[in-house]
Amino acid sequence: MPATENQPQRRPYAVVAGVSMRDLLASCAAAKAISTPPREPEPDTVRPPAEHRHAA
């Protein structure tokens, strides 16, 4: 009996779950977009609040 018969068979390739690279990249981009907080506004674009006019 050869020694190779006692060893378990190895698969020549990894088992793939059936997810395309396009779907994988799209899911990563979506996760990044959702988990990234919005940017702070630029200091020169922040306006002071408008003053309210008082009724006469």
Quick structural overview:
27% of the residues lie in helices and 0% in strands.
Describe what you observe in this structure:
With 56 residues, this protein is mainly α. It has one helix spanning 21-35. 0% of the residues are buried. The mean pLDDT is 77.
Classify the beta-strand content into a percent band: under 5%
Give start-end ranges of low-pLDDT stretches. none
How helical, in percent, are the residues? 25-40%
Q: Could you report the average pLDDT, rounded to the nearest whole number?
A: 77
Question: Can you count the helices?
Answer: 1
How does the overall form come out from the CA principal axes?
Answer: rod-shaped
Helix/strand order, N-terminal first: H
Which terms would index this structure?
mainly alpha; 0% strand
Question: Strands, helices and their partners?
Answer:
Elements: H1 21-35
